[in-house]
Specification:
The chain has 5 helices and 3 strands; from the N terminus they run H-H-E-H-H-E-E-H. It is mainly alpha-helical. Strands 1-3-2 form a 3-stranded antiparallel β-sheet. Strand 2 and strand 3 form a beta hairpin. Helix 2 packs across helix 4.
Length: 118
């Protein structure tokens, strides 16, 4: 498993727990956006949008730069790789469990067929 600081991983999962922040990240996959553009689809103030963006920045998922009075946000997907690796451990666990269940069900089905054929 990839070694990643618990603080960083906690910040990533905290950032992802909000539907608004997940939508902001999704929007940023299309390219850099201003804070105003990111806030527009939501019923929220620029200050509220800025707080969401700050949580994404804290997790390292977003870079914010200024051009005059305009703040431009850009996606940094790198921290998501650590979260993905952490989740892959559990994906392998559940895949193993589901494979074992499938085998048990197939075996039970075969055994049931043997008893009804004879």
């Amino acid at each position: 498993m990839v070694k990643q600081s618990t603080t960083t991983l906690d910040a990533v999962f905290h950032a992802l727990c909000s539907p608004a922040r997940r939508q902001i990240l999704h929007t940023l996959t299309e390219g850099p956006r201003t804070v105003g553009e990111l806030a527009a689809p939501f019923d929220m103030s620029l200050a509220a949008a800025s707080k969401h963006i700050h949580a994404l920045e804290k997790a390292g998922l977003v870079f914010r730069t200024r051009s005059g009075r305009t703040q431009i946000c850009e996606l940094n997907p790198k921290p998501l790789a650590g979260a993905r690796e952490w989740l892959r451990h559990y994906e392998r666990f559940w895949n193993g469990r589901l494979d074992a269940l499938e085998q048990a069900l197939l075996q039970a089905e075969d055994n049931a067929g043997e008893h009804t054929d004879g």
